Amino acid sequence: MNTFQLDCFLAVADYLNFAKAANHMKISQPAVTHQIQTLENELNVKLFRRTTRTVELTVEGHIFLDDARNIVELSKRAVKRFENADQIAILDFSIGCTTLAQFELLPPVLERLVQLYPNLHPKLLLVPSAQILFQLDEGAIDIALALKMNIKKDSLIYRELTKIPTICAFREDHPFAGKEGVTMEDIKEHNLILYHPGSASQEIVQLQHRIAETKKPSELYFCESAEAAMVLVQAGLGVAILPNVYGFHSTDIHPKFRNIQKCPITDAGERSFGYYYKTLKGNAPLKDFIRLLKESA
Fold first, then answer.
1. Threshold 0.90, pTM exceeds
2. Strand, helix or coil at 261?
3. CA 117 to CA 259: how far, in whole Å?
């Protein structure tokens, strides 16, 4: 695999047209086709589905898209760094999060970390939970903030920061409004918003399924992320089962969702939230980041 292959892949993914991708790359269309075929052979998957009229990414192509962009960006940054000797001192530090809400933990930590390492350039990545441990293992990120996953990787270390209760989120005009807690049985009486298992811990998926199997299809709404679930809750379509990553430091719901309330699901247990890393050896910024994160949590 090389960056030229990846550039060709990204061009086709952007244009969904081999001729336009070839024009963008300033090479012939057969050359682009050859690069895509060699990349597919190396990965042993089909990245595009082609007909006489259309080109579309396969599921595997969508999964590979973020990896390809990250690899190409890292490569370009590496070249750029050595164009000017003054830039050699830049210290890269990549943090992966599985939800946008987790980014809210970082400003005070990064402010103090940059005081310790003035040449540090943090890179924040929003990575699906299905991919984040792979990217950490491959060295694309230095640390991952996430709910504890039921995936065992001997090369990675998990440390808990806190226990996060499981909550039910609902609009302020919902019958649950003002309640101090609800049960799973209570939730069965209302429409349920489910979000994609790839973005949830296995425990949350199981809780969602416990409710979903009692509901008619018309009483279920599906979406791809916890943030999308909050939007549907805000629209009044139903309730959602979520780990309490929103309002991590406060009792309030996320500022974007002020008309949403939440309460604990009293019989749903808690989720472990923390961080994954591969090694502290030779990575002083990572050691200090973890120390500051613990102090801030």
1. no
2. strand
3. 40
Cβ pair 296, 145 in contact under 8 A: no
**Alpha-carbon gap, residue 191 to 221, rounded angstroms:** 8
Assigned token pair, 42: 């190396």
Phi/psi of residue 47, each to 5°?
Answer: -95, -25
Chain segment 187-236, per-residue pLDDT in tens? 999 999 998 756 556 788 889 999 999 999 999 999 888 888 889 999 99
Tell me the three-class secondary structure of 44-65, residue by residue.
CCCCEEECCCCEEECHHHHHHH
For the chain, percent of residues with pLDDT exceeding 90: 58
Q: Is 200 helix (H, G, I), strand (E, B) or coil?
A: coil
Measure the CA–CA gap between 145 and 160, rounded to whole angstroms. Answer: 10
Cα–Cα distance measured from residue 229 to residue 257, given in angstroms and rounded to the nearest whole number = 11
Which two structure tokens, joined as six digits, stand for 233? Answer: 């809750």
Measure the CA–CA gap between 232 and 240, rounded to whole angstroms: 9
Residue percentage of the chain with pLDDT more than 70: 91
Q: In 10 A of CB 285, how many CB atoms?
A: 18
